[in-house]
Amino acid sequence: MKILLTGANGYIGKRLLPVLIEAQHEVVCLVRDPRRFEVADSLKEKVQVAKGDLLQPESLQDLPRDIDAAYYLVHSMGSGSADFEEAEKASATNFVQYLNSTSARQLIYLSGIANDAHLSRHLSSRRQVEDVLAQGKPSLTVLRAAIIIGSGSASFEIIRDLVEKLPVMVTPRWLNSCCQPIAIRDVMFYLTAVLGREDCYSKRFEIGGPDVLTYKQMLLQLAKVRNLKRRIYTLPVLTPKLSSYWLYFVTSTNYALARSLVESLRNDAVVKDSSIQRLIPHKCLSYESALNLAFTKMEQNMVVSSWKDALVSGTIQLNFMDFVQIPEHGVLTDRQRMRFDRAPDEVMDNILRIGGERG
Prior knowledge:
It is a single chain. This protein has helices spanning 11-22, 41-44, 84-99, 121-134, 154-165, 184-193, 215-225, 240-250, 255-265, 276-279, 287-299, 344-352, and strands spanning 2-6, 26-31, 47-51, 69-72, 106-112, 139-145, 148-149, 168-172, 178-179, 182-183, 203-207, 213-214, 231-235. By secondary structure, it is α/β, with parallel strands linked by helices. 35% of the residues lie in helices and 16% in strands. Strands 3-2-1-4-5-6-11 form a seven-stranded parallel sheet, with helices on both faces.
């Protein structure tokens, strides 16, 4: 099949691409700036790169029309934009207009579990995007997932940061909300398993691992895996804004993503419709197994992708490559000067001993 992959620079897209190639599919990767798109040498000859911005419909005019299916892996959760809902709606609308001019029969979208009556802005936006994509000519298949656990995922990195940095945590009450985490490996399985299956056309599925846990339990289980003793106390007085700053200062996330997560975590994210198991039976990894697998990948330096890869934080402009000057002789030299009052041999000895047990 010929497949158009959006979000190819993102956490999910980077992992999905080699899986699709291995399955002998022809893949076209839609990216805003091809210079920022890194792909393994073994895949370069098998991948077609197309330049386009979903917020600029005119940039989609030259995209291929002979595709069979498409993946929509685009969202603005960490963009920090105040009008991200309108941007996500416009992006989905433009993509549907393009798809309507193609031969695509199926569109696959990875969304979030959202069963509560009062949803956060980001979960509401995900639902809105689902509705927009469903209006297109290709049949829509939606996979709704809760927290995704894997090396490099935003959720995993935030949980790991909290547990490894804080022996004692005074936390907001949203830690008592329930979640059904799923391993990135299982997300990849479902994303590829529904491809081309007509019994999955025009369907919306919820996917999750076997464990239903509170966020507090998730933190404590990670502490157990890392052989760390941690104490967690929940307080009702921490507002969403204070909770967001707490995540921002303690973890590696940016404030926009922290705010989005805090707003969304007040909603339970538990599978209520397990119909996908009847169509595609699959045993998902437990939360503890997903954690162990993530740490194994990190120890082996085999982290395929990270939530930071897409650079949607807003701290770096998307056109930053336009300002990068390639060194004339292939190297970039940075010279810094600092005056020392100590003997040169002593200073040099200290420099050479950096690392190891000294850190």
